[in-house]
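Late entry, written up from scratch paper. The run itself happened at the end of the previous shift, but nothing got recorded in the book at the time, so transcribing now.
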Amino acid sequence: HHTLAVGQEFPDAQGFRDTLIATAIAMKFELTFIRSDRSRVTAMCAADGCPWRIHASKLLDVDTFQIKTLKGEHSCVRPERSSHRQANMKWILSCIMDRIRENINYKPKEIMRDLEQEYGIMIPYLKAHRAKERALELIFGMPIKDIVLNQTEVQGMETVVDDVLDQRRKKPLKGSPVHCNLCKKIGHNRRTCLKSRQSESEATSLKEKNFHCMLCKQSGHNRRTCQCKVEPVWMN
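Output as recorded:
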């Protein structure tokens, strides 16, 4: 239901804003908020020259908000599919929370597909991925890094964790658990990995073994680091 009318009431200011944003997204127009506080909200269509405008305010002695004025018809051209300035994290979560509760393997690409098909809204992959992580945090009541670290205690989380880690390998997000691309373990990165240090040590040892000194004819060092006092024939 996306109809707004003068006299329509809402529980509070936030309830009115949420309904207004949902209506704007469904009707494919963007909003510019002229004022928005606990006692009044005034907004207009963001398109240049469009006369559409709405105002609602708080009723006396209660939290209830009521639409006072609704002016103009939309004269703007609205695309079928586009990004939307009001398609924020809160709105995306309202669309996907129930689906993730039913299927925790609901993927970011599926979120992108469904939002485009159902609402005509296109969002980038990273935004869909962040929404998926935030939904998991709300469902399990813990930060995403703790969900990853405690995946064995959460039934069915293996695929979800793999998906989270796959994205974090590409572009780590703020607060993400450090993941090593070398040993595939959590808690350190490739640079500080013991396996990496061991590999470097073995490579250095192998390189040293391949050294051959032209001075004493021994292996394991070169002429510059040779401790032998013997001088080559060409120096006599």
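Strands lie at 9-10, 31-36, 40-45, 53-58, 65-71.
(Scratch paper discarded after transcription.)
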